[in-house]
Specification:
Blueprint (H helix, E strand, L loop, with lengths): L14 H5 L6 H5 L8 H15 L8 H27 L17 H12 L17 H29 L8 E2 L2 E2 L5 H32 L13 E3 L2 E3 L12 E3 L2 E3 L13 E4 L34 E4 L8 H10 L3 H12 L11 H25 L16 E9 L2 E10 L2 E8 L1 H5 L11 H6 L11 H9 L6 E6 L5 E7 L1
Antiparallel strand pairs: 1-2, 3-6, 4-5, 7-8, 9-10, 10-11, 12-13
Helix pairs in contact: 4-6, 4-7, 4-10, 6-7, 7-10, 8-9, 8-10, 9-10
């Protein structure tokens, strides 16, 4: 059994320091470089932050708001397809069983040839798990792995129609969007969206359910802290300047094990650094007062990740958080999606606090988004502006809040003499992969791993599945030790 777990972030980039002294508009471009997988979410958070600082947060046109939603939705569809098929599914699938395939599929026959030649990349190396899917289900999962590569490409193409390119779109910007909606682009977007919705309904969700049926015990593994926080996402009405009060497709708020929704108070967010390689003088501050002061080699620290906390407590962010806050708000569509899925396993909503709950939340959440997108397309006003002009302030502050694919993403800016004086980002993996805080509370991933029973200490696939369910956006190191301190090995999860 895992007695203690440490989630390490081993890379310091200092984006906040790079931004100091720059034109505020540079933030929307530079912060996208924080991540090559989810740059669109950073462009959205930074743009909302700059809208706020420039005093135009409640003046964005409906076209601008809707096209931002569509660009972000395309990014989230691509991201969730990537996560399930190309980062997580192989933890449950025995690819070698494709060697037994006898059929017409060109793709599967190609994989079969690779296996026979001993060329298994990218499927190997990996940890060996307790593979429970049938031969046929394994073959189908590998076929869908390959099909998902094409579907993810279509989602990226869809994003580029209004976003210009991917990664690092140039469409979302302060004031709205650079593109003007035209009939041909709306049609092209909708054509791809319909194909992706069919894939989500008839391939993605059934595959998640097939894994859940074979590995139903993972509804009881990896629960974690059981506190969830979401900033909400996809503005349904942009006329409210305060982002915490906006009507959004996914609801803002917090939920705990009792599944009661509580309103979000941004002033209760702080970041501890006792066990992070940053100066102790910066610990316990709100993001609006935050500083980035690296202190490599600090005694007692083991990560470059800070420890965000809400009201002093540990909170998980991500698809599970945004689905369950929206579920707790009483949204009928989300409640039906979640309840009908859980009824197949004779389980209640408390089962969502688990490895499989996170995977189910991703699949159901992306269906909720994809099914909402045709309505946004139909609301676009062809040929009308999607952008408003603005003036740069000499002094101002701003805040941008959005739920990225991996969870609550916040950007904060302070402008002085027309330049960036301070910029702070609190990203989803900062929440989930955080180390212990000033009160010695382990972070969400650490708590999810602790208490897990490991069948084989030399092959800890249970830990891999737990960590991967959070979809951390960095390489995580898990170090296993015996009670006497003897090292058993170090395992990296990409």
């Amino acid at each position: 059994m895992v007695k203690e777990a440490r989630s390490w972030g081993t890379l310091f980039r200092g984006i906040e320091l790079i931004l100091r002294g720059r034109d505020p508009r540079d933030a929307q471009r530079i912060t996208q470089r924080i991540c090559g997988v989810c740059p669109t979410s950073h462009s959205m958070a930074s743009t909302l932050c700059l809208d706020s600082a420039f005093g135009i947060a409640d003046k964005i046109t409906d076209n601008g708001r809707l096209m931002r939603n569509l660009i972000l939705g395309a990014a989230h569809i691509a991201d969730h397809i990537l996560h399930f098929y190309h980062l997580a599914t192989l933890d449950y699938v025995d690819v070698t069983k494709v060697a037994q395939y006898e059929g017409p599929s060109t793709a599967l026959n190609s994989v079969k040839e690779f296996i026979q030649r001993g060329e298994l990349g990218p499927f190997m190396p990996r940890y060996e798990g307790d593979y429970r899917l049938s031969d046929e289900a394994n073959q189908q999962a590998v076929a869908h792995y390959l099909e998902a590569l094409n579907m993810r490409r279509k989602a990226q193409e869809m994003l580029s129609i209004f976003g210009g390119k991917m990664p690092h779109n140039c469409g979302i910007m302060p004031g709205g969007v650079t593109e003007v909606p035209m009939v041909d682009k709306i049609t092209s977007f909708l054509w791809r969206l319909n194909e992706l919705r069919d894939f989500i309904d008839n391939v993605y969700i059934p595959d998640v359910l097939a894994v859940a049926e074979a590995y139903s015990d993972y509804f009881e593994i990896g629960a974690g802290c059981r506190n969830l926080l979401s900033y909400g996402s996809y503005d349904l009405d942009g006329k409210e300047a305060d982002l915490t009060k906006r009507q959004r497709l996914f609801r803002q708020g917090t939920v705990s094990a009792d599944l009661k929704l509580a309103e979000l108070d941004i002033t209760e967010i702080t970041e501890d650094v006792k066990h992070s390689w940053y100066a102790d003088s910066t610990s316990g501050r709100r993001p609006t007062e935050g500083e980035t002061k690296p202190e490599a080699g600090k005694d007692g620290a083991y990560s470059w990740i800070k420890s965000p906390r809400y009201k002093g407590q540990v909170y998980e962010v991500g698809p599970l958080a945004r689905v369950m806050t929206t579920y707790a708000s009483g949204n009928p569509t989300v409640r039906e999606l979640v309840d009908s899925t859980l009824s197949r396993f004779k389980a209640g909503p408390e089962a969502m606090f688990s490895v499989l709950g996170r995977h189910a939340a991703r699949a159901l959440g992306i269906k909720f988004i994809a099914d909402s997108m045709p309505g946004w397309l139909l609301q676009l006003k062809v040929g009308e502006p999607a952008y408003i002009d603005y003036e740069l302030p000499d002094e101002s502050t701003g805040m941008g809040l959005v739920d990225a694919a991996r969870g609550a993403l916040g950007h904060w800016i302070e402008i002085k003499e027309g330049k960036i004086a301070n910029y702070q980002c609190v990203v989803p993996t900062t929440w989930n992969a955080s180390p212990k805080d000033d009160r010695e509370q382990p972070g969400p991933i650490e708590q999810a791993i602790m208490g897990t029973r490991i069948r084989d200490e030399g092959n800890p696939f249970e830990i891999v599945r737990i960590v991967r369910s959070f979809d951390p956006c960095l390489a995580c190191a898990v170090h296993l030790v015996t009670p006497k301190g003897r090292s058993l090995g170090e395992f990296r999860v990409a």
